[in-house]
Structure formats: structure tokens, C-alpha cells
């Protein structure tokens, strides 16, 4: 009957705790500084769009490939999870990915933050049954090529509490804690016994957490605007004319969650306050790209809910998903997902379960 402490209550920590708790012999405690319902720039999960737009290269596609079927199933079968299929709301539109003419050389050289998303021959065309390359007549003037496919969008305000509920249903106990060193988690199991395994899903905090202190971690500042206007489709573009670290994307969250207008991808930036100049550029790009968002009324036609900033947990070299013994206790790391935490959540959590199983089975070590 192993005692497991999961450090972190973002989407990676919650999904890991959920899958671990499906085995009733596991006694799982989630310890976190931030919980669903909190708003802090370092707690990235509430600020995500969130959707499925594959960002990995094929060699590292396992996490997203394994996650997509589960998120798609939840969208179709579990409405209380707060996920919807965009193409069911607007059958004529799906998720569109545009590759700008100005960005082609940069995309070919691999000098782009999202790696595989804008590939001209993407591996994920086999992931979506309805994937298709767009004909030239369907492309904006500045776009060289693009594709579309049926994807999903998650209302994080509903989905995170739903995950908490599924964990609680399986007996997971949640505790607040602001740890200075990862070894403190050993004594935080709700059972009163020492933890046999710690799952480190601390996200950006892995940069400063004693015993981990991962210097490869860095914040990637994401600023966005949330509006009440309904977006007719999800869309993302490979770049903007405003700045190299600014992006264009738009998606409408399920069940009244508002429409997300983004954004920025500012590596190394910790500023948590929204920049009004960036906000204006985000809104201008949105209404220029999709005039029907405001029925042609421009930025003045946007009904703003709030401006927000979240810090994505970026890790140089990619996600850390491995086991390590720290101060005599096994730790399974699951952090560094940058902007793809949701769309890789189930695949990564499955690997966490595998690693915990290996630790509990000495012959597998």
C-alpha cells in the first residue's frame, strides 16, 4: 500500500494524481501552494486556453498522441468536464493553423518555439481523422499554407475542479503547502506515514525548489485578453508583424468560459501585470484576422472580461519525465511542459504511473 505525495495541483499534478488513484492500493496526497480557484501568474494552468494543437516533433509525440483520444472522449461523453468540440458548435469551421509567407524560412530552419505545430508535412495529420491541407483560395493573403482539423477547447475553470472531483472520488486528499525543499513532501502524506514516492509536478517552481533547482527552467510569459464575444473557430498563426515574441491565436472556451485572444511567448519574462500596449495589439490582430468577432466594429466591439498573464513552465530540452532518488526517497519528475501541459497531460501521467510501478517493483529497476 504505497503512500504517494504529488507536489503541484496544476493540470499535470492533478492528472497524475487521478491516474495513480485509480489503483486503490495507492494512497495519494496532493500538496500544493496553489489550488484550482487560485489566480497567480506562476500557477499557469488556469490561464491556458486550453486546446489541442500538437507542438512536438514526431520523435517526442507520445505524450500528445496518448492524450488526444482521452480529451476527445471527454468532450463527447462527459459534458461536466467542460470540454467541447469546436466543429460541433460550428460545423463549417474547425481548428485552423496558418503558416505565414514571412515565416517559411524560419519554420524550415526549426527556429520556432512550437517546433512541430507549423510543419508543412506534420506528423499529426494521422492523429486527426478529418485533417486536411487548406486550398489556396481559403488562405489569407499573407499566408503561404495552412491546415485544419477538428479539435477541442477546454474551459479550465470547469476542467480543473472536475479533475479534483475525480481525485476525491478515488480517495485523494488535498493539502496546502509551500515547500522550500522537495524532501519536505516525505512527511506530508495524509496517512501520517512517510511517503514512499514523491511525484514532482511543481511546474515553474522546479527552478527554485530545493533538491531540484532545475536551471533549465524558465518562465515564458503569456499575456492574453478574455472577451465575451463568440469566436466562430479556433485559429493560430505562425507569427506577427508586431514582435518576434508575440503570437496570434483565438479560441472559445466551453460552457460560457469566454473567448481567449492571444498572445505572447516571452521567454525569461516574470512580469505578471498585463501590458496595455500589448493588450491593444492582441485585440487589433484579432479583429483584423476575424472581423466577424465584433461584426465589423473593430476593437471597440470587444466585450472584455479581463486581461491576464500566466507564466508557462518552459524547460530547455523539453519536459522532465524520469525518476530520481533524492535524500533516500524516490521522486518521479513530471514538469517543464511549457505551453502544452493540457494536451500532453494524460500521456505524461501514464508515464508517471509506469515509473511509480517500476519503483514499487524492484525487479524493474
UniProtKB/TrEMBL annotation:
InterPro entries the record matches: D-amino_acid_oxidase_CS, DAO, FAD-dep_OxRdtase
Transmembrane segments: none
GO biological process, one term: D-amino acid catabolic process
Domain FAD dependent oxidoreductase: from-to ranges: 4-355
Keywords: FAD, Flavoprotein, Oxidoreductase
Cofactor(s) listed in the protein's UniProt record: FAD
MF terms in GO: D-amino-acid oxidase activity; FAD binding
A GO CC term assigned to this protein in UniProt: cytoplasm
Keyword Oxidoreductase annotated: yes
Family matches, as PROSITE patterns: DAO
SUPFAM superfamilies: FAD-linked reductases, C-terminal domain, Nucleotide-binding domain
Keyword RNA-binding on entry: no
Top-level division of the source organism's lineage: Eukaryota
Family membership noted in the UniProt record: Belongs to the DAMOX/DASOX family.
Listed name of the protein: D-amino-acid oxidase
Organism: Pestalotiopsis fici (strain W106-1 / CGMCC3.15140)
Amino acid at each position: 500500500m504505497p503512500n504517494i505525495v504529488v507536489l503541484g495541483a496544476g493540470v499535470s499534478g492533478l492528472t497524475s494524481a487521478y491516474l495513480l488513484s485509480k489503483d486503490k492500493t495507492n494512497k495519494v496526497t496532493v500538496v500544493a501552494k496553489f489550488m484550482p480557484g487560485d489566480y497567480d501568474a506562476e500557477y499557469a494552468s488556469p490561464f491556458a486556453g486550453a486546446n489541442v494543437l500538437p507542438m512536438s516533433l514526431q520523435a517526442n509525440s507520445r505524450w500528445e498522441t496518448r492524450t488526444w483520444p482521452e480529451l476527445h472522449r471527454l468532450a463527447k461523453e462527459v459534458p461536466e468536464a467542460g470540454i467541447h468540440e469546436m466543429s460541433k458548435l460550428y460545423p463549417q469551421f474547425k481548428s485552423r493553423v496558418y503558416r505565414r509567407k514571412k515565416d517559411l524560412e524560419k519554420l524550415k530552419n526549426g527556429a520556432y518555439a512550437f517546433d512541430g505545430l507549423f510543419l508543412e508535412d506534420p506528423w499529426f495529420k494521422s492523429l486527426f481523422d478529418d485533417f486536411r491541407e487548406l486550398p489556396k483560395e481559403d488562405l489569407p493573403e499573407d499566408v503561404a499554407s495552412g491546415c485544419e482539423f477538428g479539435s477541442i477547447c477546454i474551459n479550465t475553470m470547469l476542467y480543473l475542479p472536475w479533475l479534483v472531483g475525480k481525485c476525491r472520488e478515488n480517495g485523494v486528499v488535498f493539502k496546502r503547502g509551500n515547500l522550500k525543499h522537495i524532501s519536505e513532501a516525505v512527511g506530508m502524506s495524509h496517512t501520517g506515514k512517510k511517503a514512499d514516492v514523491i511525484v514532482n509536478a511543481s511546474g515553474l517552481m522546479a527552478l527554485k525548489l530545493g533538491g531540484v533547482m532545475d536551471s533549465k527552467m524558465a518562465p515564458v510569459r503569456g499575456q492574453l485578453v478574455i472577451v465575451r464575444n463568440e469566436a466562430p473557430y479556433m485559429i493560430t498563426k505562425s507569427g506577427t508583424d508586431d514582435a518576434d515574441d508575440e503570437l496570434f491565436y483565438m479560441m472559445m472556451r466551453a460552457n460560457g468560459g469566454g473567448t481567449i485572444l492571444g498572445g505572447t511567448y516571452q521567454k525569461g519574462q516574470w512580469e505578471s501585470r498585463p501590458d496595455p500596449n500589448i493588450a491593444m495589439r492582441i485585440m487589433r490582430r484579432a479583429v483584423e484576422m476575424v472581423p466577424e468577432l465584433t461584426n465589423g466594429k473593430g476593437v471597440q466591439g470587444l466585450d472584455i472580461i479581463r486581461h491576464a498573464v500566466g507564466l508557462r513552465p518552459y524547460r530547455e530540452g523539453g519536459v522532465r519525465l524520469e525518476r530520481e532518488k533524492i535524500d533516500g526517497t524516490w521522486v518521479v519528475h513530471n514538469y517543464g511542459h511549457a505551453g502544452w501541459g493540457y494536451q500532453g497531460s494524460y500521456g505524461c501521467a501514464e508515464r508517471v504511473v509506469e515509473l511509480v510501478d517500476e519503483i514499487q517493483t524492484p525487479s524493474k529497476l
